[in-house]
């Protein structure tokens, strides 16, 4: 027998916990996490979401308490998604830029109570349109680009005025980053950051989110294929990201997460930009359902999924598991 067989033993570095820790290439910690939250009107109110067990819509006062806990856990930022009643929805989505709207009030309350927590707002019209699309429709039912962008700019400015640290356009209209950036500069919000949902795919994994914000019933089976990306496309994501960087985005995003890790890797390698990834509602629902059935170990599989997103190139991850993960990591 050849005494040098095998030439290399990669198992040596796996043979003890200390060695595994020394060679570990990727780490996950609370600094990587952003918690998306659903906000509702009222006081001391929560509502559960059938397709997202463990996630609750909550009123602003409860959200402020939650923000305090996130700061204690070391989570850097929160992403707000307002859920308003049908009476606030219209064809023109005017409620989107109401200076005293739900999102704007939530931003003010959180920044007043926990100024150190980064607040990210969603810039898109779907919570406020009666049809659930992210933009304004023409007579043929097509989402109009430039008319929508005008409203998005007003919405983003109302968020900045309320004190949002980061505005995050999730609408996929063309040219909106440039217009929002110009609006912010003109109004003097030179340090308001833009997180561009640059490569946002027309994904079936957004289903539970649409239940959470109530846009599923308004959409009534309609799709978003004329503005969100075709899941079949990869090169196109680089084109989308390049435009958003050129237009003034501070951070770019790939969404969803786990089915799109090839895109995350390509975007990171091509642009070396801060790249955020959204582990979306459907990814949460899959993991949660399997865990609730006893089919997956929840903590291990969630940590593995998030670690994989980071390994692919993510700098930060929006995840409904953020608070759980920070708790798990702090007791590990
Ligand atoms: N502007 C809409 C928006 N913003 C975030 C999500 C999905 C997030 C998730 O599934 O967790 C969606 C859904 C959609 O495009 O229909
Ligand atoms: Mg684009």
Automatic annotation (TrEMBL):
EC number: 4.2.1.24
Record PROSITE patterns: D_ALA_DEHYDRATASE
One annotated Gene Ontology cellular component of this protein: cytosol
Keyword Metal-binding assigned: yes
The entry's keywords: Heme biosynthesis, Lyase, Magnesium, Metal-binding, Porphyrin biosynthesis
Signal sequence coordinates: none
Catalytic activity: 2 5-aminolevulinate = porphobilinogen + 2 H2O + H(+)
Chain ranges passing through the membrane: none
Biological processes, Gene Ontology terms: protoporphyrinogen IX biosynthetic process
EC supergroup of this enzyme: lyase
Residue numbers annotated as active site: 200, 255
Recorded metabolic or biological pathway in which this protein acts: Porphyrin-containing compound metabolism; protoporphyrin-IX biosynthesis; coproporphyrinogen-III from 5-aminolevulinate: step 1/4
GO MF entries: porphobilinogen synthase activity; zinc ion binding
Gene3D superfamilies noted in UniProt: Aldolase class I (3.20.20.70)
UniProt keyword NADP present: no
Family of this protein: Belongs to the ALAD family.
Subunit structure: Homooctamer.
The name this protein goes by in its record: Delta-aminolevulinic acid dehydratase
Species name: Arenicella xantha
């Amino acid at each position: 027998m050849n005494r040098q067989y095998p030439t290399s033993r990669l198992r040596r570095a796996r043979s003890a916990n200390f060695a595994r820790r020394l060679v570990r290439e990727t780490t996950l910690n609370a600094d990587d996490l952003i918690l998306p939250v659903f906000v509702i009107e009222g006081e001391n109110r929560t509502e559960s979401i059938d397709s997202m067990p463990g996630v609750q819509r909550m009123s602003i006062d409860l959200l402020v308490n939650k923000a305090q806990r996130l700061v204690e856990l070391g989570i850097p930022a929160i992403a707000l998604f307002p859920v308003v009643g049908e009476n606030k929805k219209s064809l023109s989505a005017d409620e989107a830029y109401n200076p005293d709207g739900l999102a704007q009030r939530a931003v003010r309350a959180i920044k007043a109570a926990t100024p150190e927590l980064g607040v990210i707002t969603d810039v898109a019209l779907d919570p406020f349109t009666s049809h659930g699309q992210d933009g304004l429709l023409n007579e043929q039912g097509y989402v109009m680009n430039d008319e929508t962008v005008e409203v998005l700019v007003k919405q983003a400015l109302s968020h900045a005025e309320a004190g949002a640290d980061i505005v995050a356009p999730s609408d996929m209209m063309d040219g909106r980053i440039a217009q929002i950036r110009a609006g912010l500069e003109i109004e003097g919000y030179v340090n308001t950051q833009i997180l561009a949902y640059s490569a946002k795919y027309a994904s079936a994994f957004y289903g539970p989110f649409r239940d959470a914000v109530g846009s599923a019933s308004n959409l009534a089976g309609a799709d978003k294929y004329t503005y969100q990306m075709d899941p079949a496309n990869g090169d196109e994501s680089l084109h989308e990201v390049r435009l958003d960087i050129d237009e003034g985005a501070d951070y770019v995003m790939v969404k969803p997460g786990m089915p799109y890790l090839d895109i995350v890797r390509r975007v990171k390698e091509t642009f070396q930009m801060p790249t955020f990834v959204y582990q979306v509602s459907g990814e949460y629902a899959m993991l949660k359902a399997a865990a609730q059935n006893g089919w997956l170990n929840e903590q291990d599989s969630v940590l593995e999924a998030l670690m994989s997103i980071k390994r692919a190139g993510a700098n930060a991850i929006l995840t409904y598991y953020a608070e759980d993960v920070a708790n798990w990591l702090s007791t590990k």
